[in-house]
Design goal:
mainly alpha
Length: about 300
C-alpha cells in the first residue's frame, strides 16, 4: 500500500474513517436492541465515542490546514494536540462505563441471546479497522501529525477490540448452554477496556510534550545536523539550534556565525542553500537561519 502524501490525504483518510464509524454505529446500535450482551452494548457506546472523535479530528485537520493569520502567526497546529488529549479523555469515560456494566454482569451472569449478528459484525469491522489503521499510520509517517498518530492508535485499538469481542461472543454463543460461558461476555468487555485505556494513554502522552514546545523527535534533529554538516564550509560556527513542532509543521531556528568580511549578499546566498537542503530532509519543516554573533546567540 502506497503512503498517502500531503494534508489532502489526511482529510480523505479521516473521511473514510468517519463514514465507517457512522455505518458501524448504526448497525451495532440495531444489534444492541435485539441482544442482551454487555459487550455489544459497550461497543455501541465506544462506537459513539469513536464517531465523535473522528469527526473532531476531521474538523481539526481542516482548521489546521488554513493559512496562518496575524493572530496565529504559526498557525493553529497545537489544536491537534488538544483534540488528541480530548479523544483520550472520551475513551477513558467510555472505558469506565463499560467497566461498570461488566461488573454488574459478573455479579449476575445471564445467558447471551441474539449475539450472532454481533459476532459477524465484529469480524467484518475488525478487518476494516486494521485496514484503516495501516492507511492512517502510513499518512502519519509521511507527514508527522499528533492527530493522525492518535487516530492510528485509535484504529489499532478498535480493530483489536472488535477481534477480541467477536471471539469472546463466538465462544459464548457456541457454549451458551453452559453456565460458565455466561461469564465470557463481561470478561471480554473488560479485556477490551484495557486496550481502550492503553490507547488513551498513548494519545495523551504523545500530545502533551508538543504543547510544552519540546524539541522535535531525535530522528528529525539528526537530519538537521547532517544537513548542517554537509554545508560546514558555508559558515564559521553553529551557535544555537532550536526546534519545535506545531501540529504537522516543524519550526527550526538556527543561529550561525559567518565570516565577518563576507558581503550580506553572499551570506544570504549561503543561507538559502542551507535552508532549502534542510527543508527537503524533514517533511513539513520551516527553517529560519539567523546570521549572528556569539554574544547575540547567547540571549534566550
Amino acid at each position: 500500500m502506497s503512503a498517502p502524501q500531503g494534508p489532502g490525504n489526511r482529510e480523505s483518510s479521516l473521511k473514510l474513517a468517519l463514514t465507517f464509524c457512522i455505518i458501524d454505529l448504526a448497525l451495532m446500535g440495531s444489534v444492541a436492541f435485539t441482544s442482551n450482551s454487555v459487550t455489544i452494548l459497550g461497543d455501541v457506546l465506544k462506537e459513539a465515542t469513536d464517531t465523535l472523535s473522528v469527526l473532531a479530528a476531521f474538523l481539526t485537520v481542516r482548521a489546521v490546514r488554513r493559512s496562518a493569520n496575524h493572530r496565529y502567526a504559526y498557525g493553529v497546529g497545537k489544536l491537534e494536540n488538544l483534540v488528541s488529549i480530548g479523544i483520550g479523555g472520551m475513551m477513558v469515560l467510555a472505558a469506565l462505563y463499560i467497566t461498570a456494566h461488566s461488573a454488574q454482569h459478573l455479579q449476575k451472569p445471564i445467558k447471551p441471546e441474539g449475539t450472532l449478528p454481533g459476532v459477524v459484525l465484529f469480524g467484518i469491522y475488525a478487518a476494516i479497522s486494521y485496514a484503516i489503521f495501516f492507511r492512517t499510520r502510513a499518512a502519519s509517517r509521511t507527514q508527522p501529525s499528533a492527530i493522525m498518530q492518535s487516530q492510528a492508535k485509535l484504529w489499532f485499538a478498535k480493530g483489536t477490540f472488535d477481534a477480541l469481542m467477536g471471539s469472546g461472543l463466538l465462544v459464548a454463543l457456541l457454549f451458551r448452554e453452559s453456565e460458565w460461558a455466561w461469564y465470557i461476555d463481561p470478561i471480554a468487555s473488560l479485556v477490551g477496556v484495557c486496550f481502550l485505556l492503553h490507547a488513551a494513554w498513548g494519545m495523551t502522552s504523545s500530545s502533551v510534550p508538543d504543547l510544552l514546545d519540546a524539541a522535535v523527535e531525535e530522528s528529525a534533529q539528526i537530519q538537521i545536523m547532517r544537513g548542517l554538516v554537509t554545508h560546514i564550509d558555508a559558515y564559521e560556527r553553529i551557535l544555537k539550534v532550536r526546534s519545535r513542532r506545531s501540529g504537522p509543521n516543524v519550526y527550526v531556528e538556527i543561529f550561525l556565525e559567518f565570516e565577518p568580511d563576507l558581503r550580506m549578499r553572499d551570506v544570504q546566498t549561503r543561507i538559502e542553500a542551507i535552508r532549502d537542503d534542510l527543508e527537503s530532509r524533514v517533511s513539513g519543516t520551516q527553517v529560519l537561519i539567523c546570521p549572528t554573533s556569539p554574544s547575540a546567540a547567547a540571549v534566550p
